[in-house]
Amino acid sequence: MGDIYVTGHRNPDTDSIVASIAYANLQNATLGDRAYKPVRIGSINDETARLLSRFGVAPPPFIKTLRTQVCDLDYDRTPALNRSVPLDLAWRTMRDGEVSVVPIVQDDGTLFGMLSAGDIASYDMQTMAENRVNNVPLFNLLSVLEGTLVNELNCTVSAVSGELYIALPQNYEDSALTNPDTVLICGEQPEIIDRALESGVRCLIICRATLRPQWAQAGSDTCIISTPLSARRVSRIIYQALPVERIIVPKDIVAFHLSDYLDDVREIMLKSRYRSYPVLDENDQVVGTISRFHLLRPRRKQVVLVDHNEAAQSVPGLDQVEILEIIDHHRLADIQTTQPIRVRNEPVGSTNTILTSMYQERGVVPSPRIAGLMAGAILSDTVMFKSPTCTKRDIAMAERLSRIAGVSLDEIGKELYAAGSSDGKSAEELFNADYKQFHIAEQNIGVSQITCIDADHLLSRRDEFLSLMQKLRDKQDFDMVILMITDVLQEGSHIFYVGNDETIRQAFSKEPKDNYLFLKGVMSRKKQIIPMLTALWG
After folding, report:
1. Angle at which helices 368-381 and 409-418 pack, to 10 degrees?
2. Which residues make Cβ contacts (< 8 Å) with residue 368, sequence separation at least 6?
3. CA 507 to CA 498: how far, in whole Å?
4. Which of 179, 204, 273, 432 is least surrounded by Cβ atoms within 10 Å, i.e. has the fewest?
5. Beta partners for 62?
6. Residue 485 and residue 450 in contact, taking contact as beta carbons nearer than 8 Å
7. Is 178 helix (H, G, I), strand (E, B) or coil?
8. pLDDT tens, 349-360?
């Protein structure tokens, strides 16, 4: 079973990060494997980092996209052969593996070239007009001929070259039998063998013959090979002892890495005409081959979405994944699936409230660390139970989790909002920490929320925020960009906006001034900002 990614929304808040950790932990505890992997698609904000650190839990790894990659394909795990292996071995590998191309690698496993059945066939046709071998490594020759080295104790030959010649009885006087530059193929012909050795023939291949003891004493410059193959077979297969690197034509090789995206691979393949392409890992080691037909039915990544169900807020490449489940507490939005899935959407203040119910239903008690994280996430998303989204279930679940974790909710709450210090941060960092995009009735808007216990130092940076928001609106072609600075002590939100004044006036029934207004009692983007705009725009 492959990894199943559990992810919250972009620019994740504490509820989103903790929900991915808690859900993965629950699934792994009840399904008997560790396939569920919590991940994030944005940076960890200070509040979340402080909570994770307090309970000793590492942040989920960051992923940039879930687009389909080469590693998601059922590519061929074709064996990669060393450049020094004989052609005979390469051909048998193709035949037995029913493949037409094999990668050839250097000694360090990196790619040297690609060898196709057509390359071997072309070389084999060339040998029809040739009668010579050059520099064939002795090891390769012994392997291909299934032979043994008769004068093994004396021979110093490492490679064999010469004109091929089959000794026939009627050709006893042929000068080729005594030419040192001859690779002589013989049978049960001891007289010819003795004469050839006396004349200094460099290579003798003895086929299916009885060996004489004195032949083992032949000089160091002579190579005597005994083989069970026939002379006719030896005369053909000897060409297959050549190292594969000798027939690979040097050229630019189109190769793909496991991390390459399928869309990019498809574009490159359309511009080339190769039958097969090598696949490399992160160290440029060859791991297999890929062909066009592998692109037809890719294996999609599997993902569970928590704390969101809107495509604009989700991971890039969402259209290329298989969504298994959605657990959320926001309005239903625009995510579509190709098949029925499990969806759990409840009107509570935090996704972790829903997850706590799921732990109870399955009879799993979260560890004190996980329980502490979940309690903190509920406090964060309900603004310490002051948000209008907060329900009695949120409070009850947070209290239950705090007892399991052995912590005080008041203590955690103070730590959460103490983490909201903004003195050393840019306006962009503050704005992007909890920023979401929405599409409502043909209107595109962006809404960011900063929660704090003293808004004055943030309000003094009004011009910075408005300048940033105007640039974002122009770049993204948004109808409106809103920043909520939610003050826990004041129990309300300061609103900065760029967009149409009349929209703000009608949506919130209050007169704005200089792109600003204060909304008493408004503490939830989900329940008090987005619904008002939705009602206005229909």
Report:
1. 60
2. 55, 404, 405, 406
3. 14
4. 273
5. 40
6. yes
7. helix
8. 999 999 999 999
Cα–Cα distance measured from residue 486 to residue 423, given in angstroms and rounded to the nearest whole number = 17
DSSP string, 305-372: EES---GGGS-TTGGGSEEEEEEESS---S---SS--EEEE-SSS-HHHHHHHHHHHHT-PPPHHHHH
Residues contacting residue 401 through CB under 8 Å, at least 6 positions apart:
356, 366, 371, 372, 374, 375, 378
* CATH number of the CATH domain containing 384: 3.90.1640.10
Q: Are 483 and 516 in contact (CB under 8 A)?
A: no
Mind giving me the DSSP string for 428-460?
Answer: HHHHHTTEEEEEETTEEEEEEEEEES--HHHHT
Whichever domain contains 518, its CATH number is: 3.10.310.20
Residue 68 has pLDDT above 80, yes or no: yes
In the chain, the amino acid numbered 496 is F
What is the average pLDDT score of the chain? 89
Amino acid 186 reads C
Residue 55: name the closest of 22, 28, 6, 32 by CA: 22
Q: Is residue 348 located within the same domain as residue 437? A: no
Output the CA angle 367-372-376, nearest 5 degrees: 150
Same domain for 431 and 411? no
Torsion angle of the four alpha carbons 151, 157, 162, 166, in this order, in degrees rounded to the nearest 10 = 10
Structure tokens at 216: 């083992």
362-372 tens-digit pLDDT: 999 999 999 99
Pick the last residue of a domain from 418, 447, 468. Answer: 418
Q: Please, what is the angle between helix 392-405 and helix 351-362, to 10°? A: 60
CB count within 10 Å of CB 296 equals 7
Distances (CA, A) of 366 to 102, 307, 406, 407: 50, 19, 12, 14
CB 489 within 8 A of CB 502: no
Residues of the domain holding 39: 4-68+301-418
Q: How confident is the model at residue 171 (pLDDT cuts 50, 70, 90)?
A: low
The answer to whether 244 and 87 are in contact (CB under 8 A) is: yes
Retrieve residue 481's tokens. 């960009």
Query: Phi-psi category of 352—alpha, beta or left, where left has phi over 0 and alpha has psi -120 to 50?
Result: alpha
Long-range contacts of 129-135 (CB under 8 A, 24+ apart): 130/239, 131/163, 131/164, 132/161, 132/162, 132/163, 132/164, 133/160, 133/161, 133/162, 133/164, 133/183, 133/238, 133/239, 133/241, 133/242, 134/161, 135/159, 135/160, 135/161
DSSP assignment, residue 64?
S
CA atoms within 13 A on the CB side of 150: 24
